[in-house]
Design brief:
The protein is of the alpha/beta class. Helices cover 34% and strands 35% of the residues. The chain is built from 3 helices and 6 strands, in the order H-E-E-H-E-E-E-E-H. It has helices spanning 2-17, 46-64, 141-161, and strands at 33-36, 40-41, 67-68, 76-93, 102-117, 123-137. Strands 1, 2, 3, 4, 5 and 6 form a 6-stranded mixed beta sheet that branches. The longest helix has 21 residues, at 141-161.
Length: 164
């Protein structure tokens, strides 16, 4: 029993001498606030810009712990361009041969996005031509758009967290 106590003490002491942690991933430590700018909208969907802005702000706060701030005072900014918004891409068709309507549709959203450190002016993460898809039932385009936006936001957050 005494050996076990000595070995345990040595392990603790060695652990203190060689600290191990997960530092190095994620955002730099000085990034505490973020400004999400409205994306330039080159699509025919006017509502898309606002929906993406609201979702991006909410999830950056919730999942990365960043506080919302005006652009002039933010540690980082998220900006981008909504490039394409394709709806009604058929995915599955009705089994009834007399009716050639689609039962499932897919929406594709293509954007350019970057997360920039305001202090250094360098991009912390960026992606050109990021494509997100949302599948939806016929006549439920809003659900497809919500899923595509959710995937875009998730990709941005994962990209920000993966900075090694």
């Amino acid at each position: 029993m005494r050996r076990f106590g000595i070995i345990s003490a040595l392990v603790v002491l060695l652990g203190a001498c060689f600290p191990y942690g997960f530092a190095g991933g994620g955002l730099p430590s000085h990034i505490k606030t973020v400004a999400v700018l409205p994306f330039d909208n080159q699509t025919p969907s006017a509502a898309l810009q606002q929906e993406l802005l609201v979702a991006m702000r909410r999830e950056l706060q919730r999942r990365l712990g960043l506080r919302d701030a005006p652009e002039a005072r933010a540690d980082a900014i998220v900006r981008g361009t909504l490039l394409r918004y394709d709806v009604d891409v058929p995915v599955a068709y009705s089994a009834d041969p007399n009716q050639a309507t689609s039962a499932r549709r897919m929406l594709q959203l293509t954007i350019d996005v970057e997360l920039v450190d305001q202090k250094s002016g360098k991009a912390l993460w960026q992606r050109k031509g990021l494509v997100a898809q949302g599948e939806y039932a016929e006549s439920a385009e809003n659900e497809g758009r919500r899923l595509a936006i959710e995937r875009v936001v998730n990709d941005v957050i994962e990209g920000a967290q993966s900075q090694w």
